[in-house]
Give the backbone structure.
Amino acid sequence: MARASDTVRGLIEKEISRGKLRPGDLIDEKMLSERFQVSRTPAREAIMQLAATGLVQMRPRHGAVVSELSADEAVAMLETLACLESEAAALAAQRIRQEELDALIAVHAESEAAAHSHDSKSYIECNGRFHGLIYKGARNTYIADLIRQTRSRLAYYHTSSLYQRSRVERSWVEHGNVVKAIEKGDPEEAQAAMRDHILSGGRVYADLVATMTHKKESENTD
Amino acid sequence: MARASDTVRGLIEKEISRGKLRPGDLIDEKMLSERFQVSRTPAREAIMQLAATGLVQMRPRHGAVVSELSADEAVAMLETLACLESEAAALAAQRIRQEELDALIAVHAESEAAAHSHDSKSYIECNGRFHGLIYKGARNTYIADLIRQTRSRLAYYHTSSLYQRSRVERSWVEHGNVVKAIEKGDPEEAQAAMRDHILSGGRVYADLVATMTHKKESENTD
DNA sequence: CTTGGCTTTAATGTATACTTATATTCTTTG
DNA sequence: CAAAGAATATAAGTATACATTAAAGCCAAG
């Protein structure tokens, strides 16, 4: 990253994904430039890049805020994410290489301990590698990019599901179904298994909306 | 569009979609600022926004070019487009409202004449409205945005298929299958019909690669 | 006391000046 | 004559100054 604007963009992204900057928070150009010791120009450029991807919203003459999602929008994104992830799984079932499949099975085995001991932190790390291997096996970098883009926009509303004790074990079982289907080389089954995993049988929708209302309440109490 | 950078961004987008700016073409900040009578700042900001969406590529200190696609990337995008469009069709089959369905049927009827007389220009216009109505019926603005984003990036390589005489009639028949499935409220059938339409039974892949090599050759002869 | 309008202020948007890095060209040396 | 290196030029990246607009605060009038 040679340009200051890219550095700043990365830092803002990180702060949003970590929840340090929350939806609705104002992103002031001057504040950014002071915090990161650059002039307003690269700070502003960073904001505009993020606005182009939808992570922040800019209204002319009114500054930028971290994008807030309505329940409808969040559901739409989750629906789309399920579509993309399940397609990636279907592709992976057809295209994954032996060594990638071995790695996938290994990660799944490695995550078993974390799942059974409800160790969310370790499990989340494994989960990231698990899905990453599927994107790689799918041999479609574009769909992987869209998935990452969508996940980053949902992050604030969608993160916490793996912090629920019951979800970790359920997730591991669902992962197992995906692995099985990919191992068989069955794209339809992999697709169905992944869709079920992302939506967790529909419960994730309810979680999402519940989380949104909860977080909105906690904002009011600030 | 209150900001000059938004105006410039729109103009560049239009020039790219119309083929006036072609993949690989350099986008010079100074040239832009002179052509559109603005300073370098908004010109540069326009470029950065487009770079964030992937339509142009910026390499630090080396300026920006309209993104070129390798065959692999183009195939990946088409694959993803098929996934998104077919999902939108499935959703529309479940959610479309009566008046939207009426409009869809009307557009399909209207396009029949254009299809049979091989009037590509009229048909392409109808085609746009047809797909737009499906996005609307799908009640998922996010997936519609991703589709539009993907189409804009594929535009240069993917446009011309409806200028082939045989494709127009085939497209109309495929549209008919989609309409039928949506009318029945059958999401699986709508999904399959739309996937088949986007890929036209696999021929579009071949077309895409052929078009790419052809256009690359014509660039060399400039 | 409240409301409407004006004034001031602060932040966005734009222009331009300045810095830095890269590429090209010219010169020098082998 | 060729190749390598230095110098210059050009364009990207950054900083800052200026313009413009919206928002907030204040004053006056009803």
Observations:
- Chain B touches chain A through 33 residues (CB under 8 Å).
- Residues 71-95 of chain B form the longest helix (25 residues).
- Residues 71-218 of chain B form a domain with the Four Helix Bundle (Hemerythrin (Met), subunit A) fold (CATH 1.20.120.530).
